[in-house]
Amino acid sequence: MLYLVLLAAQFRGVIATTNLDADTVSAPVIGELFGSAGAHANVVLGTFGWYSTLLFELATKWLPLHRQVWELTPYAMALAGAALAAWSVWQIAGRWAAGITAVLLICAAPQTLHLLLSMTQHGPDWFCCALLAAFLVLLERSASKLRPLLLVGLTVVVGTIVGVNVASDVLVTIAGLAPFVLAVLASYTLARDPNSVRALQVTLVMLVVIGLSGAITHAAMAALHVAPEPGPGNTRLASGGQIAINFRLWWHSIAALGNGDYFGRAASFSSGLAVACAALSIAAVALLPRLGWHELRHRAARKGLPAGPARLAFVVFWCSSAILLSAAFLLSALPLDIHADRYLVGLVYAAAAMIPVLAIGRPLTEAAALLGTCIFALSALTSMAQGVYTRNTSRFPSAGLARQIASVAAAHHLKYGYAGYWDASPITWATHLRVKVFPVSVCDQNAHLCRFDLHFISSWYKPRPGIRSFLLIDPAQPLVRAPTPDLGRPAAVYHVGRITMYVYPYDLAEKIAS
């Protein structure tokens, strides 16, 4: 509760800090400008197609306060995911275990919260995992008792939500859908009670719904000329040497996502907590396969504990989710640095769901789980109290700096500009689109400006005759270090904080290469 109180007090700052990240804020910027893109404009998203986010934005854009809705919805989904995970644990292992799960998921580390608040960083995936886990438990406990109409309705709703997100991101299939199918098959094979039989039937229907909703989503996005960033790099497998690098990034990411980002910090009480959280998080995830296997081998009912299809399916779901997600991470060529932790938030959900379930009924293990949870929560509270959640460590352009740029632009009747990727969308969103700054990079050995390769609408780079435009140079984000020689002499130069604004008597889109 104290964590939520502190978060509520800082929530505006947390949202503002999150929206300084171009990867995150590109979603609402594209959503706002989508309608003015033109009939034949192409929309290029990120390394995966966040179609579900874009569809949500288009469906709610008519709301008077849609900006606030877009900013609040990711955390509402995160809370809903925590509630679903806690409910499923409650059904399996009781209130105490559910409380542990809820605390572990709600008291998110700064980096985890940042990723959950971003609708372009796989945030909807983890909600889908929690949703599938809850639906699985419901089926394995009560499928044969539910009214057919209610069961069909739930299947269609869950299948549609998961199908749209499966079309958006392959991680939903890896971390959610495949484990769901494995869990249902395991329960059907090993238990064979009426609920497990009905669960298998429902799963077959749900797969059809997922296939249909996924196909419709792909067709709709193709009709709207929306696609993820092109290129074979999104599906390449890692080389032998990169697998070793990926393993280092794997455990480093788990530590960061589990309140254990102690790397490079001075020795202090908070960094000591971070070290403890890193050890606990890595141990919890690493032990999941072994603990899950032990549970399956000894799944006979213990005194006072529920057993049967629901518990069996639950264990198979979360253990296989963690294993498949980790294997995909280790074997993929996508992880490049610590920012690849965005692929592994599902491991936090798996550990938070499984550890209390497997601890229940073992007094020493329950005590260890409770102690670890207290350390985890205390570390999150300490980080929140220290303002870690609102620190701009990457020196992205602040909202204040963006407003200064907007003031200079308004004073000189400028509406359109260009900047490096990490500056463009954050400034556009922070100024409430009073100025529209589009992302560019440099090419041909710094001879020309080029449009950036992801998160853009092609119409942004269509020349607008009769207008002046500007180029922003930010020494803190040196993707574009200086005006390229082909731009000619600027009509004016303004210094706004650390940023230099070069004003040209024409639209720079005329000089931007495709």
- Total E-strand runs: 9
Structural class: alpha/beta
* Major β-sheet strand ordering: 5-4-3-7-9-8
Main beta sheet: 6 strands, mixed
Determine Rg (CA atoms, Å): 24 Å
Distance between the termini: 51 Å
Features:
514 residues; alpha/beta; 6-stranded mixed beta sheet; 3-stranded mixed beta sheet
Could you explain how this protein is built, in words?
Helix 8 crosses helix 10. The chain has 17 helices and 9 strands. The strands form 2 sheets. Strands 5-4-3-7-9-8 form a 6-stranded mixed β-sheet, covered by helices on one side. With 514 residues, it is an alpha/beta fold. The protein has helices at residues 2-18, 22-33, 51-60, 66-93, 95-106, 110-116, 123-142, 148-168, 170-190, 194-223, 240-257, 269-297, 309-331, 345-359, 363-385, 399-411, 421-430; strands at residues 43-44, 226-227, 416-420, 436-443, 448-451, 456-457, 469-473, 492-496, 499-504. It is globular. Strand 3, helix 17 (421-430) and strand 4 (436-443) form a beta-alpha-beta unit.
